[in-house]
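Example 514.
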Amino acid sequence: MPAKWLKDAVFYEIYPQSFKDTNADGIGDLNGIVEKLDYIQSLGCNALWINPCYDSPFRDAGYDVRDYKKVAARYGTNEDLYRLFDEAHRRGIRVLLDLVPGHTSEEHAWFRASQSADQPNAYTNRYIWTNNWFCGSRGLNYIAGEAERASAYIVNFFKCQPALNYGFNRVEEPWQLPMDHPDCVATREAMKDVMRFWLSHGCDGFRVDMANSLVKYDDENKSGTSAIWKNVRAMLDEEFPEAALVAEWSCPSQALRAGYDMDFCLNNDDTGYSTLMRDYQGGGEDDSYFRKDAPARDINRFLKVYTRWYEDTKDLGYISLLTCNHDTVRPRFSLDIDELKLAYAFLFTMPGVPFLYYGDEIGMRYLDLPTKEGGYQRTGSRTPMQWDGSKNLGFSAGEAASLYLPVDPAADAPTVAAQEGDPDSLLNFTRKLLALRHAHADLQADAPFAVVSAEPNAPFVWRRGKLLLAVNPFGQARTVKCPAAGMTPVFTHGAAKVNADGIELGPQSFIVLE
Ligand code: NOJ
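Predicted structure in complex with 1-deoxynojirimycin:
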């Protein structure tokens, strides 16, 4: 069963490079996160996911880990991170770190030993080496010509990220080790050791990078990779029963059965997420459900996958919807502020555990920027948090040229300070939604969900426990027939009211009825 504290959890994702710089070097740091914990608490977020903050050459923004147990100097020290855990806990905020179990940096000590001419050694099989200096294998990317040993190695993502060896579910060639090979089991144990290290220093769990791809040539059900996570879960249940895990898997039916508490619904085309808020690829008409003037909106394009997952996993754990993340475009890319309010009303009242990406609460823009640290098109969603109208929009006292990435140059760049005093701002609307969620157990992770009305090109009406919710994304009023008679509003945005056969919804409105 998922950790109990997740029932009312709302996560805030922090890309540490870009959140708050306290030493004027142009890069965010852990002390900056500590400084802003009161702000995060004021939003109604009670949990954090911090992207990798470990020692790294930063060729993939820290997803290329050089030392799993050491904080990168640019962010501070391990002691700073322990203090962050303490300060967060004092405010009732839990902290998940990002675990990158599938690969390391090519500069990790394990890889240095594994690739050396001095063979065999304790790390010979920590990575996946092929049988000669120039060969790969079906479906696996390999790098030749880089290592001292006369062999090529398999990578998981970029060239700088050699894949750790958890074995093959189906062995096709002699160099492919089976999952139960002692050297593959040793890789799993080494990753458990990393988890124990941070959990025993106060971390509350992990977001797990590429959680579904540890074992190679796995079967359709990912039974090999799942067996590893079940083993990890057994360790957590025994040693850290409150620890939470959220998977980057985007298949809750598999991830939650493998022992995860939560799995992200990512904006892959096949999840339908990008039909709520469009992603980079979207050519043609923008039919995002929350666009005021979408030519052909249909919430079913999202629900057809979501409800199947929900029905299959509601007793096992949670699906996590997100505003966006460091890999996707910001929702402001396709939605304006009024549209974002409705999208957030939906995301933060659905079941499961929601995630808010830093800056989305003020509607930060996706910027068109050259790549930074392997970001490529993701770079535009990773710009510094915009706090106020001061130098560098309050992110850093350093010189503009030293910033990790530039801040939004627009004259109307949204900032926290500008939105604080405006009761209608996106910031304050987000706060109201999260306060509503915390005030009603029926809006939290566990409360039942059912679709009430989901016609194509129409508002969406759904039930959470004893509450009835409706959203009208259209720029015109719409009426929906549904059993709402006698119910009273607990939250209204725009003009919306109950009539004899249903709900009258004004343009771009949202209502929650009890
Ligand atoms: C997924 C992470 O979210 C992404 O940022 C990273 O580049 C890849 N995994 C590789 O670790």
